[in-house]
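User: I've been going back and forth on whether these two constructs are worth ordering. Before I decide, could you fold them both?

Assistant: Sure. I'll take them in the order you sent them. The first construct and its structure tokens:
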Amino acid sequence: MTSYLESLFSLDGRTAIVTGGSSGIGRGIASALARAGASVVIVARGRDRIDETVASLTEEGCRAAGVVGDLSARDGIRALAEDAVAPFGEPDILVNSAGINIRPPYAEITEDDWDATMTVNALAPFLLGQRYGVGMAERGYGRLIHISSQQAHRAFVGSGIYGASKGAVESLMRSEAEAWGHHGVTSNTLVPGFVLTPLNARLQEDPVKVAELAERTMIGRNGLPEDFAAASVFLAGAGSAYITGHSLFVDGGMSAH
């Protein structure tokens, strides 16, 4: 049984790059991939948080490294893409978890708000996926995993440009699945419900709203970063080879409510 499960889910010998991997859902996923055997490069803006995450995983016996990167501009994204391959080589797995969540009232959204959101949330996944996906296809194995949002599928709590950016990610995922599916590369999204992370800090200031969101789930609670561990290991491994172009909802049943 053990060898069978390893053939499906072990990530030994694989390399992963996780953007936004030092906090929230990204950290939960980076930790899961590392514990499953992958060599993981954690990409984020803050050196201190990267170092703390890498140190924690290294203490567990995992292989992890960190790269400080700027996803807010094209040049920064391209530079990061090259820096991230230095520790362990070209990746087999890319997880796009970094994101920003700007939510002014819709009539007050500026062009700068739009550009900033689309660059981090949509352009960075495109450029990184294109940069690494070609090599994955040449090697015959690749896993592209994007963190999406309920607001890519429905509008609520002022989805605004954040929802639009995540809708772009869903379409990007399907385009990647079409482009490289014949070459052993899959592309999928993980769709959270409301997850208690720094990205949602503003909304967490309203305990009534937090409780209301928990009531919208079938399970009766809001999500945690560790809820994404099993799903991410599954989508990153050999066992998911026939699953691509798919949105996997990790939301406690919120989307079915």
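The second construct, handled the same way:
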Amino acid sequence: MKNEDIIEKILPKPRSKFLKVKCKKCGYEQIVFSHASRKVYCLVCGELIAEPTGGKAIIHAEVLEELG
């Protein structure tokens, strides 16, 4: 095994991601954290986009893309 393979197995990878979402009400796109710890509202219309649960947030918008 190469050193790179060993390091990948030893070091944990994060399970959280940033999500590019689209508001269902107005269509505005913004980036939110998958494990948001506070309510996230649309910057344009104020619609609830993400709701915290203690782990992964409940996403109330259309997920367009997972980033990083």
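Notes on the second construct follow. Residues 8 and 44 are 41 Å apart (CA to CA). The chain has one helix and six strands.
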